[in-house]
Amino acid sequence: MKNGTAVSGKMAPAAAKDRTDPIYRFIRIVAVVSIFFLFFPGLNPARICGLINKNISLFTTGVSYSALTNGFGKAFRKAWVTEATMRGLQFSSLAIIIGIIAQCAASVFTTGSNRMKRISTLVVIGGTALSIIGCVGIYLAYLTMTTTIKPQKVLPEIPGTFFAMLVITALMLIAAVLAMVLGKRSKKGDPVTMPSKFQLFAMCLPFIILCFLFGYLPLYGWRYAFFDYKAGGTLSLDNFVGTKWFTYLFTNDSTRSDIIRVMKNTLGISGLGIATSWCSMAFAIFLNEIKNKHYRRFVQTFTTIPNFISWVLIFAIATAIFSSDGFISSLMVNAGIWKKGVNMLANGHHVWLQMLAWSLWKGLGWGAIVYIAAISGIDQSLYEAANVDGAGRFAKMWYITVPELIPTYMVMLLMAVANILNNGMDQYLVFENSANSANIMVLDLYVYKLGIGSGLIPLSTAIGMLKSVVSVILLFVANGISKVTRGSSII
Amino acid sequence: MAKRTPAFKAQKVKMSAGDYVFAIIDYLVFGIFTAACIFPFYYLIINTISNNKLVAAGKINFWPVGFHLDNYANIFKLNDLGNAFVVTLSRTIIGTALMVFGSALCGYLFTRNEMWHKKFWYRFVIVTMYLNAGIIPWYLNMSMLGLTNNYLAYILPGIMVPYNLILVKTYIESIPPSLEESAQLDGAGYWQRFSKIILPLSKPILATIAIFGAVNNWNSFQDSLILMQGAPKLYTLQHRLYIYLNQSSNLSSLMSGSGSVSSSAVENLSNMKIIKYTVATVSVIPILAFYPFMQRYFEGGIMLGAVKG
Asked: What is the pTM for the complete model shown?
């Protein structure tokens, strides 16, 4: 998709009249197609026996031996399959991966000058050679596998996509050789350059690929929400269940009551956060009333530190202060007021308020920075005029400072509303215990527990999916409100 | 108009009783909140450097008694804590360096209008900021890419941070184009222009994103928790701390883990409480130590964030 569209007609590079142009266009399209072979489990050409997990892609086969041999414990012990065969399979896959990456990278550089084209075509040929070597390796591994003593268990079978892979590689090779033969020769001294638009794009491409891998590719995982999938199982038409998991959320009684409870917690904790969001503004306003510059600086410095501390560390601090052998307990015990220490973290009362208190402790000073900066930007003549009119301290705060800060506050408020479902999970995960579990379980934590803890991948994916969609909608609504009321967008 | 004095002087002249009360309350409230922010750290630290017997008895509450640093010497003999420290430190350095480089380079490239389909690719990158597949698809994707139980899982996903990219791009756009043009006339290519002109000039913003990136890397916990389930050697410091915090007060579980723990070292750390406090202090000290250097950069950074776009 990246390289293939690179030559959509009018965008063709400098040597536009070259007769090899269609060939290069073809090479780039094939390169893009071959990327799909890397990442889509359904297209994995290295799945040469029934024991290999259906959900691993060619890429995984090549880079992770443990994922590849996940189901091979018994096969290795009983010597149905040798480790050497699987290692061979892994390295063959790795050869194909490197080959495909080389082809793709080189096909980007076929947008350059004639000399560069020919060099990159050579790289493409090298890449296809590597891919073919890998294919031969896979075939050899398959042949070794057919000699197994237990074919009915190992199920050696050469997948159809293996031949597709071969065809595609062969096409690439033929095209590259053709381009070499038909293209103009180049000498050593010829310029190796690219048009600047492609040069810039080529420099950016590695980062765009990272974005694709970690930003877009996870969305492909949403397909799990439509299958009846168990960890280690497979996705196929047999276990396609359509929207079963989405309706299950509302029809299954225990899940429904879970969801209602979780939503109550999520909205409750977020709601408290929103209801106290003015605190940072008040913090900034009252801090500004302190006339001693050093004291102000001191307060500001030390109240921002908690923002840079992870939730795990905050939990460590909470333990140090509130647990049964912590600060408060030892004070009370030493003073003889309590007989023994009390673990104040393990109580189920006012859990939302406890969480709010920790959030405020962490975020109040930090949240104030933006308001402090805004206050320093307020026109001082407003205050002078108010002084002349005899306005008191609070009148100046209320009638000058607050209205000046409201636009900033509105942005923060809208962002908080857009993020109402995204509490994050770290805080609630670390503070969760058996006493407060029922009231602390927010959506993010629930999805994590359901998916990673209980292995209910389809259900948790479905919930996560709904959450993501609702969050995006909320964001756009907030943005729309901001556009209408403030005339500028927040995203 | 000549008689007008600055606001604060005018107030000083007519400080009423009400003003005094207000000032006292104001100073006091902020003083208490600041103390609440500092004291827990102080409490942790004095408990790790005081006589361990007194600590175990809960006698160290306001000042250290029986100063010693043995806990810090002994703590690294515990199971895999040294490992966790190395993993966390290395990912902080490598991950931050690559993130800064990536943001700077892409930020520069996306200011060049001659880039092929610049607008489309810029949006392609920025949209990922709002795309969130959810934690399970993310996990499945990482395992599909072979990044579970793999150190690279700490580095690769963090290189492209759209928000940082926006910050850097906005900053680079404010650099006078004439500087780059003069280099272009001298025949410098994109790479040279980037490394010789843009990179040095955007140091302030790069410092800002480096600090945020480093803090995030140092504090990272979730990726270790979810992705490294089969590789305890790759746990981050925060993850280790989390495990220690959830451990019951007996030491047997720590000692049975590996033979490398000398029992005397564990005896010296006579109490799980001290282990927890010391590990917590070890993971918080780098942040406290670098904080004064960080402060002037992040305050600039948060304001830049307000004008993104």
From this structure: 0.85
The answer to whether residue B250 neighbours chain A at the CB level (below 8 Å) is no
Q: What angle do CA B141, B147, B152 make, to 5 degrees?
A: 135
Q: For position A264, what pLDDT does the model report?
A: 93
Q: Is B86 near chain A, with CB under 8 Å?
A: no
Q: pLDDT (tens digit, 9 = 90+) per residue, A375-390?
A: 988 888 999 999 898 8
Cα A57 to the center of its chain, rounded Å: 19
Answer whether A199 touches B (CB < 8 Å): yes
For residue A93, give both structure tokens: 């896959």
**Selected residues 433-462 of chain A with any CB under 8 Å from a CB in chain B:** 444, 447-448, 451-452, 457, 460-461
SS3 A227: strand
Kindly report each contact of residues B47-55 with a partner whose C-beta sits within 8 Å and lies 24 or more positions away, as own/partner.
B47/A320, B47/B273, B47/B274, B47/B277, B48/B72, B48/B274, B48/B277, B48/B278, B48/B281, B52/B268, B52/B269, B52/B270, B52/B271, B52/B274, B53/B270, B55/B271, B55/B273, B55/B274, B55/B277
B110, B136, B146 ranked by CB distance to A60: nearest: B146
- Give the tens place of pLDDT for each residue, B255-288: 444 444 444 444 545 577 888 888 899 999 988 8
pLDDT of residue A5: 40
In the stretch 215-234 of chain B, residues with CB closer than 8 A to chain A read 215, 218-222, 226, 230
Is A204 within 8 Å of B37 when comparing Cβ atoms? no
Q: Mark A13-26 as b/e (b = at least 16 C-beta within 10 Å).
A: bebeebebbebbbb
Name B281's Cβ contacts closer than 8 Å, sequence gap at least 6: B44, B45, B48
Distance CA A338, CA A318 (A): 19
> CA–CA separation, A485 vs B8, rounded Å?
36
User: Which residues in chain A come in under a pLDDT of 50?
Assistant: 1-16
Per DSSP, the residues of A462-486 read: HHHHHHHHHHHHHHHHHHHHHHHHH
Tell me if A62 sits within 8 A of A93, measured CB to CB. Answer: yes
A428 and A445 in contact (C-beta within 8 Å)?
Answer: yes
Query: What's the pLDDT tens digit per position in B163-173?
Result: 999 989 988 99
Which of the residues A66, A200, A339, A411 would you substitute to probe the B interface, choosing the one with the greatest number of B C-beta atoms within 10 Å?
A200
- Closest CB from A203, A426, A447 relative to B221: A426
The answer to whether B27 faces chain A, any CB pair under 8 Å, is yes
Q: Are B34 and A364 in contact (CB under 8 A)?
A: no
Q: Is B163 on the interface with A (CB under 8 A)?
A: no
Q: Is B2 on the interface with A (CB under 8 A)?
A: no
Secondary structure element (H or E) that encloses residue A460, with its range: helix A457-486
Q: Is A198 on the interface with B (CB under 8 A)?
A: yes
Q: What's residue B157's pLDDT?
A: 94
Give the model's pLDDT for residue A483.
Answer: 87
Average model confidence (pLDDT) for chain B? Answer: 82
Instruction: Report pLDDT for A155.
Output: 83
Compare CB distances from B124 to A211, A316, A467 and report the shortest one's residue. Answer: A211
Q: Taking a C-beta distance cutoff of 8 angstroms, is the pair A85, A143 a contact?
A: no
The pLDDT value given to residue A210: 93
Q: What burial class does residue A32 get, using C-beta atoms within 10 Å of its C-beta: 0-12 exposed, 13-18 middle, 19+ buried? A: middle
* Per-residue model confidence as pLDDT tens digits over B12-58: 556 788 888 999 999 999 999 999 999 999 999 998 888 877 887 77
Interface contact flag, A208 B121, Cβ < 8 Å: yes
Window 117-156 of A: residues touching B by CB (8 A cutoff) are none
Separation CA B272–CA A427 (nearest Å): 23
Quote the DSSP letter at residue B197.
I
The alpha carbon of B56 is separated from its chain's Cα centroid by a whole number of angstroms, namely: 31
Angle at the Cα of A39 (from A37 to A40), degrees rounded to 5?
75
Mean pLDDT of B87-97: 95
Q: Closest to B58 (Cβ–Cβ): which among A39, A303, A325? A: A325
